[in-house]
């Protein structure tokens, strides 16, 4: 599959690039995409929820009422989970939700996500460009000219570019990432994938082994 290269004005440059068949032309594997998305979302969970159990509650250990003759159930501690202010039974504890996922599985999942985007025709190849200074207004103008202003877009860059990243930071629907750090979740979450020419080479180096 070959795509025309556009410039930041949204016009064709007359150049065409061939998308690597080993990435964009494979048969997508839904199960590995599921595993990669699950890994990504689990990795983002903080796991810091915590409630105090009976042994961690501050309170007197005095028996709060006599054992018999009250007509109610026995009660030996103010920290009893049945009482207001008592400990929590089997409450949440800090934990790590992350789990191991093999590199080959991650790589195949990201190839599959990119293949879906290629099949849908939602990939735009952009000529390499730079910005002299961070300007959200200027970046917003670029999105408008290439026709993705109202859609969720994922910009892939070959290397860190602070000017572009800062320019896109305040735009809710624009996400700028390095080509060798993408995840299946981010690719599938975006309506349009905008890849610079150099970022395509980075993708090839990152995903084709």
The mean pLDDT is 90
How many β-strands, per DSSP?
A: 6
Gyration radius from CA atoms, angstroms: 27 Å
Number of helices: 7
| Assembly state (oligomeric) | single chain
Q: What is the CATH third-level topology name of the largest domain?
A: Ribosomal Protein L4, Chain: A
Give the low-confidence spans: none
CATH superfamily of the largest domain: Ribosomal protein L4/L1
**What is the CATH architecture assignment of the largest domain?**
3-Layer(aba) Sandwich
Task: Give the DSSP E fraction (strand runs of 2 or more residues).
Answer: 5-15%
One letter per element, helices H and strands E, the order comes to EEHHHEHEHEHEH
Q: How much helix is in the residues?
A: 25-40%
Biggest sheet character: 6 strands, mixed
According to CATH, what is the class of the largest domain? Alpha Beta
Strands in their spatial order, largest beta sheet: 2-1-3-6-4-5
Query: In the residues, how many domains can be counted?
Result: 2
Question: Whole-Å distance between the termini?
Answer: 20 Å
How would you describe the shape? elongated
Structural class: alpha/beta
